[in-house]
Amino acid sequence: MSGFRIATGGLIDRSKPVSFTFDGKHYQGYAGDTLASALLANGVKLVGRSFKYHRPRGILSAGSEEPNALVELRTGAYREPNTRATMAEIFNGLEASSQNRGFSLKYDPMAVNNLLSPFFAAGFYYKTFMWPAKLWEKVYEPMIRRAAGLGRNAGVPDPDTYEKTTAFCDVLVIGGGADGLRAAREAAVSGGRVLVCDENAALETPDLPANVKFLPRTTVFAVYDGGTYAALERLTDHLPVSDAPRQRLTKIVAGRSILATGALERPMVFGHNDKPGSMLAGAVATYITRYGVAPGRNAVLFINNDDAACLIPLLASAKVQISGVVDSRPKSSDLVHNLAREAGVPVFAGAAITRSLGCQSVKGAEIRLNNGGMLKLECDLIASSGGFNPNVALTSHFDGKPVWDDALCAFIPGNLPPGMEVIGKAAGQGINRNIQPCWHVGAHPGKSFVDFQNDVTVKDIRLAHQEGFSSVEHVKRYTTLGMATDQGKTANVNALALLAEATGKTVPETGTTRFRPPYTPVAIGALAGPHKGKFFKPTRRAPTHEFSEAQGAVFVETGLWLRAQYYPRAGEDWLAAAQREVNTVRNHVGICDVTTLGKIDIQGPDAAKFLECVYTNSWTNLAIGRVRYGLMLREDGMVMDDGTTARLGEQHFVMTTTTANAAKVMQHLEFCAQVLWPELDVTFISVTDQWAQIAVAGPDSRATLAKLVDAPFDIGNEAFPYMGCAELTVCGGTPARLFRISFSGELAYEVAVPARYGNALAAKLMEAGAEFGIAPYGTEALGIMRIEKGHAAGPELNGQTTAHDLGLHKLLSKKKDFIGRALAARPALTDPARPTLVGLRPVDGVSIIRAGSHLLPVGAAATAENDQGHVSSAARSPSLGSIALALLANGPARIGEQIRVYDPVRNGDTLAEIVNPVHYDPSGSRLHA
Amino acid sequence: MRIPCPHCGARGVEEFLYTQDAGVTRPKDGGAEPTKEWTDYVYMRDNLKGPRKEYWYHNAGCHAWLVVTRDVSTHEILKVELP
After folding, report:
1. pLDDT tens digits, residue range A545-572?
2. Is B73's Cβ below 8 Å from some Cβ in A?
3. Tens digits of per-residue pLDDT, A717-768?
């Protein structure tokens, strides 16, 4: 037992005892305690094992800079490793455990690493596990990872929920200490919205004006452009597990910010300075004043500055014996002498603690006096202070470079993020300048740790320099200094000074310590927020989704959409179902939801002129009530998209796009209208979600639809021919649009009604077509039929094909300007040797051609030089067997020839005949039926 | 980064889509020939430090195309105009 709870004082609530366990053992603390303060109050010193050497470690600090006291909190799927005990608040039932240890924390067999440590110096792994190289991945790395390291991942999906939000304020104050609160009150006078974030729990609720919002347990961890900050609010980490969100990631947009993050103390670097019982002087003061806990019973102070001297009266008031104050400054200072005299404590000026004594924890201190003599003092607590580093982390997130302040022996903020002001100790103000650097205590037995978390010693830094790693960035990577969860908050400046000493340069010449986001670790779950699993992206359901569900559809994701893929009946697999659906359409009638195709309503006096600009073909001559296929290019001459556009009125068109490119085409049209041709009087809007559109396809489609269209609309072949369109009503007054267009190659229509009628319309169509054997068909059948008809789709519109490649060059108007016109005329883009659209059929009639196969001349070796194209789309047609579309060099000229279809990935090697890409009804007679 | 949209006010960058350099102009009545003027317009870009004119599309907002003058080395937004 060493630490204890002081009888009175502190900000904890002594009326509320809290029980928790650490490594299975029950302890008690009070509401307001952190795990660290409660463990210290219970006399627990040893809380973890170090990263590499498995050395016993205790609690160094009282804040988020803690490198040692990392623990696992909670159990099972809720287990979170590497939590700083200094930040974790206790609650009834909290289960905490130590990590990176063997059977028990006290007896860790891996501590043998400590005895072997001469071999484990910086670069050990790089030097040792060089050969045989093949063992690295399978043997060495897993072994090293097991031996070294931090806590264990829960290994199962995180069951916690996280929130994401955005907050706005005029002034953001980062840090809710005395300086921060004062700044907040001052900022509030102007009446603006002020937000104060403090990473700790507020043990006292600050009294603030109404326009100041105070967020405790909230760490501002990053600064971004435009006055944007990222903050993590720990909502329920201090409470037992519940359904409430665990953490909230807030994007803060602030007019300006005030950084009041204070300063972080540096430990002194001496032999065995990492032992439990070796703490930062400021942390000892915090445990006494904030938590009413004395971390030891008999202390020795080791300081080089006056700030730490205030600990002397504090320890005295807490009834902690002080065996001595070791001040590395040759004369110490009047302040230290006076405070020590009042407390009756000897001061050893110009002296140094060379090492701590004791095995599992501090039992004493070995002191080298200014006359060279040695002295041993008994103690169970060494409180050291090597000076203070202004907490400049956030100032360097924006390419800010901290500058060295010689008088302070620390970096102060340099160039700041726009709109940021730094106050108080974070700016180096109010830090006592009576300091003389003491970066290490000189030759002594035992390890002197610089970076506790990564087990980096003074020797490692010197070794790195000896081996040629003299730039601070190289030293960091060679020794792992400053990495992991604490990012070297207590280590970096000491390390830099030691490196400066080794290189014979000054600290600023050696480098600076800069920090990247995040300031403290952020759970990936918090960054993801609620956007995980099925909430990762929105799901768009077709307006006939319920209908399709009731019909037993299997759905497929296409972009954000869920589309019916096929409608299996008893005993059918996907192929059987899709082929039956194709046969139904080819012989009778089928329906398919085609709502997902982009629909853009275009209106205005210049609507037709606008279409001339964006499509390659002609539009001003399209009659009202007619539909035309249109082709869009990018400005570089490649095909961007295609689709049909209907003219509903003199100034009114409805454009359709492919499902995949709907948003892209909309954006493109906006660019054309706003940037390229702002003089055109045209306006347009996406109506994709407003209209439910269903394809009714097959020889019996007219007879089916005839039952639904309201009189006096004439759906007859002459009154409403192929490529006609009309606005009408269906089913007794429902407004509708009817298009006689066909993707399947059959007599077909697409009928659109307001989206809310989608399911009802599908049901009505099924009823009307029942006598003809109507069936719904999905995207598989749709795909088979479009390949049978040789229509280009996604695999052909791949951003690398031209109108020429797709056999659509006749659609390039010679009479007008359009997007892509000039560059589409480049000779290389119309070279017949370019891969061009053709059809393929297996010569033997039974082999199957797969998409992705490569095309080689018959008898040619399968080499890249012989590659003449590839199979873009393939289908299993119920009437034609295996068919495919391919992009083949000189394709159209080679129809009738044979080609080798080579598929090394799936062991395919088939001979195919090159055919017209329109496999089915090449004359198109069925469309006009 | 935040962009002050002339229609919607200052909004987070995630609402916008950067698309292309706004320092080039589509050849007026450029004709059907793939001239150097055309290849320069489509392909040739300067990649200079400092303020650049860029097209940003307010994708999750008003769908406006904006000409944003941005210092590409500091992300400072110097000017936002309608084209």
Report:
1. 999 999 999 999 999 999 999 999 999 9
2. no
3. 999 999 999 999 999 999 999 999 999 999 999 999 999 999 999 999 999 9
User: Does position A1 have pLDDT exceeding 60, yes or no?
Assistant: no
Pair of tokens at residue A571: 């005993």
Question: Six-digit token pair at A506?
Answer: 């000054």
Structure confidence at residue A144 (pLDDT): 66
* Contact assignment for A671 to B64 by CB distance below 8 Å: no
Considering only the beta carbons, identify the residue of A251, A253, A822 that sits closest to B31: A822
List Cβ<8 Å contacts ≥24 apart for A910-913: A910/A842, A910/A843, A910/A844, A910/A847, A910/A848, A910/A849, A910/A853, A911/A842, A911/A843, A911/A844, A911/A847, A911/A858, A912/A840, A912/A841, A912/A842, A912/A843, A912/A849, A912/A884, A913/A840, A913/A841, A913/A842, A913/A843
Helices (H) and strands (E) in chain A, counts: 22, 50
Question: Please, which residues 487-546 of chain A have a Cβ atom closer than 8 Å to chain B?
Answer: none
- How far away is chain B from the Cα of A577, in angstroms, using its nearest Cα? 40
Which tens digit of pLDDT belongs to each residue from A256-302? 999 999 999 999 999 999 999 999 999 999 999 999 999 999 999 99
Q: Which residues of B touch A823 (CB under 8 A)?
A: 34, 38-39, 42
Query: How far is A303 from A540, CA to CA, in rounded Å?
Result: 65
Query: What's the pTM?
Result: 0.90
Domains of chain A: 4-124 (3.10.20.440), 160-261+388-438 (3.50.50.60), 540-596+690-785 (3.30.1360.120), 599-686 (3.30.70.1400), 786-927 (3.30.1360.120)
CA–centroid distance for A295 within its chain: 40
The answer to whether A825 contacts chain B (CB < 8 Å) is yes
Q: Which of A224, A674, A817 sits opposite B30 (nearest CB)?
A: A817
CA-closest candidate to residue A642, choices A608, A598, A595: A598
Cis, bond preceding A132 (omega within 30 deg of 0):
yes
Task: Report how many helices (DSSP H) and strands (DSSP E) chain B contains, helices first.
Answer: 1, 6
Q: In the predicted model, what is the mean pLDDT of residues A807-829?
A: 94
Asked whether the predicted pLDDT for residue B44 surpasses 70, the reply is yes
Q: For B1-23+48-83, CATH number?
A: 3.30.2270.10
Q: What is the ipTM of this complex?
A: 0.98
Residues A526 and A694: their CA atoms lie apart, in Å, by 42
Roughly what angle, to the nearest 10 degrees, separates helices A458-466 and A492-503? 40
